[in-house]
Amino acid sequence: MQILDAQKESKIIPLFRLGFRVFFLGGALFSCTAMVLWLLILRDVAVLPGVSNPIWWHAHEMIFGFGLAIIAGFILTAMQNWTGIPGVRGWPLALVSGLWLLPRLLMPLRGELNGLVMVLDLLWLPLVAGFLARPVIQVKQWRNLFFVPLLILMTLLNALSYYAAHTQDWLLAERVFTTAALAIAALIAVMGGRVIPFFTVRATGTDKPAPIPVLEKLVLGSIWLATLGWLVLPRAPLFNGLLAVVLVIAAGANLIRLSRWNYQLTTGIPLLWVLHMGYLFIPLGLLAMAVAILNWGITVSLASHWLTAGAMGTVILGMIARVSLGHSGRPLKLKRPMVVAFVLVIAAGLVRALLPMLAPGLTSLAYDVSALTWVIAFGIFCRIYWPILTQARADGRPG
Fold this sequence. Notes:
- The protein is an all-alpha fold and 399 residues long.
- It folds into two domains: 11-168, no CATH class; 173-399, no CATH class.
- Helix content is 76%, strand content 0%.
- The chain is built from 15 helices and no strands.
- Helix 14 runs antiparallel to helix 15 (363-390).
- The chain is globular, with a radius of gyration of 20 Å.
- It comes from Oceanimonas pelagia.
C-alpha cells in the first residue's frame, strides 16, 4: 500500500480493518454466550424470555448465528487474497457485522417470531454476498463466485427456519437445520480440499498428493447432492434409501480423500492435526446421517451433531486460530492453552455425538459435558486472541 492508504488504514479501528477480525472474535464470543445460555436452559432456567422454543433457538443460533459468522469472516478475508482487491473494511464492515449482531441480541428478548428480528437477520448474509460478488466479477474469477449462491441458499434456509417457527412446523425446522449443517459440511469439504493439503505440505516439507479428478468430483458431487436431497426429497422408504446410499458414497469418498493428505505427518503440529481431525468428523457424520434417515436406532438430531459439534466446531476453531495469526502478521506458533482448546473442542464433538449412541442413559451428561468443554475451548480462543484481533498487525502492514 501507498503511504496515503496506510494513513487511511490507521484511522480505522483495528477490529474493522478486515472481516476475520470482527467476525472471528464476535462469533467465538457469541458461541460461548449461547452455549452458557443453553446449559442454563437445560436446567430449566428462564434466560430467554422472548423465545417460545429454546430448542429451535439453540439450533438456529449455532448454525446461522455462530457458524455463518465465521464463514463470512473467512470469505471476506480470503477474497482479498484471491482477487488482489482490498477487502471490505471500515464502516461497510461495521454495518454488516452490526446487522449480524443485532438479531443475536434482540432474539432472546423479543423472540424468534418478532418481525424486526427476522428482517435484520435476513439482511446481513445477502449484504456479505454483494461484497463478495463485486471483486470476483471485477477480476472475472468465476471459480470463487460460487460463494454468492451459497450465501443466498443459506439466507433462504434461514427464512425457511423462521417460517417453520411461525407455523410451529418442527419437522420442517429439523429438515432445514439439517440441510444447513450438510451445506456447511459441504463448504468445509470444498475449502478443506484447497487448504488442508496445502498447509500440510508447507509445514511438513513433503510433496502435495496429486488430486484424483474422479475422486474430487465424487466427493463434492455426492455431498452437495445429499444436501439438496435432504431438503427436497419426500420422506418415504424409497427416497430415504436412495438418500442413504448417496450419504454412504459421500462418506466413503471423503474418507479416502482425507487418507491421501498425509495425516500421519501431522502428529506434532497442532495447527494441522486439528484440521485433519475436524475433517474426519465429516465422513463419520455422513455415515451417521445415513443410519438416521433409515431409522436404524439413532435420531437425525443426534447424527447431525457429528457435523455441527464435531466437524463445524473443530474445523472452525483450527482455522480461526491459524488465519488470525497469519493475517495479523504473526508467526504460526500456538500458545500451549490453544492446544488444550483443540483437544477440548474435539472432545466436545465426540461426547455430544458418540456418548448418546453408546450409552443413551448418559445423554443428559453428554449435553452438559459437551457444552462445557465447548465454552472452555472457545473461551480460551477469545482470551488469547482478543489482543491479536483488536490491535493493529504486528508487522505494521494494513489489514
